[in-house]
Amino acid sequence: MVTLKFNVDRKGRIESIEYPEAQAIIDEARANGDEMTDIPVGPIMRVGESNKFVEHAHYDDGTPVDIPYEYIGYGKLLGLQYADFGELKNDLTHVSENWGVQITPFAGGYIGKRVYTVDNAGVPHYDRMRDLADAADDDKITFNGIARGNVTYFWFDGPVLLDDNHYDTPIAEDGLTDNNATLVFDSTGTQTLTADFSDKWYKVQAIKDATGKNTFKIVGGTGGDDTRFHLLPDENGIVAANMTEGATPGMVDGNSAHNMVYQAGYYGPDGNTGNATEATALMHYQYTPNVNYRDANGQKVEYGNVNVTIGFGGKVAQPTTPQP
Question: Cα(first)–Cα(last) distance of the chain, in Å?
């Protein structure tokens, strides 16, 4: 996941959007010989009074190109005042017909309204949230809200990743939605996001314990009809860090490459000295099986991975009393 910076006016209206780490990411990619990047360097500017934005970019040869974006925020649906979550969509069909519309989920809020602190290394600390959870009758704070999921299967049909042979297929064009999702912060410091997408995929949980360890868990559903979007949990429902595909034709026995990033934020009118009334969360998980590019007969086999991004926004179910 990358950081999005929203520049707003005094009325809270977003005027532009920036990717602070963009240039560093692009420089690293090019140092590794990868010219395929879709991260904007300059600010994305709002177009009039709409929710449309545009990036004034250019190709490597200097030819200018305008890339359109659409900002979709769900915070207003919940009446959030200090935070928002949603999606930033950019249309890259003019670059390659296989790229289509790409979606960047986001979640966050006003820095001055955070009910937690962030150190110089960018690591969040939730001491205030633990105090509030300790004060609650059931030793936890629950936020009720909406979760939006974006699950895609990215594949290509040969050993070389080229523009003309890779595709990014979503499990559902309109994404996944749970209007009764929850985010729970308990007195141990464990944060659990639960989202039920079992009508099209799975019911899942993203869990961060007090040490910062992330766990992605399937707690319901069958994964849907398309097996490309299926994950391989262990007997406890956990999609483990080291999975084995087995002796399936075209597959390699051994560990799968995958990663997970999960971050939650808590906000309130008095910042880190008051109650947490709103929360957002953003989780990204990628599962990539090890694959032989050709079967025993020398034929190409399809290679792909599943990318999961879940955004959440919600309001506190029952406010707690601040403790000194």
Answer: 36
